[in-house]
Amino acid sequence: MCSATTEGLVPSEDERLATVYRALAHPARLAILRRLRSEPGACCGDIVKCLPLAQSTVSQHLQALKDAGLLMCQVKGRCCHYRVNEAGLQFARAASADFLDEIRIVDATGSSDKAITAVEQPPVCCPEGADP
């Protein structure tokens, strides 16, 4: 039976994975990650040149990715040079795989190998004489 408490949550891992998913849920952030994969060490100004976004907006996106553990920053003078954080990506991959395995759907035989294409629904009955 479920209760309205936080029982059953794994706070540190669940919260961290949710933070990663929130960070990845914006197309601009995905574009930033792709850019930094191809150009490691880029600063905010370099990234702004490639996106139709204001510098302040790109800075906010970079901060969200950094807070999620997906980016690392090395400060050089007044510029912060960003790189993809491999450890953060590895966490995202492993935690996502674990979570998806945990919630996978199994059929009546206990097998999860079969693709579930539709959920069986009871037939919809119309009153006699009514058009369906």
TrEMBL record:
Superkingdom field: Bacteria
Keyword Transit peptide annotated = no
List residues of the HTH arsR-type domain: 9-104
Matching InterPro entries, A to Z? ArsR-like_HTH, HTH_ArsR_DNA-bd_dom, HTH_MetalResp_TranReg, WH-like_DNA-bd_sf, WH_DNA-bd_sf
Checking PROSITE patterns in the record gives:
HTH_ARSR_2 (PS50987)
Q: Which GO terms describe its molecular function?
A: DNA binding; DNA-binding transcription factor activity
Q: Does the keyword Transferase apply?
A: no
This chain's protein is named Metalloregulator ArsR/SmtB family transcription factor
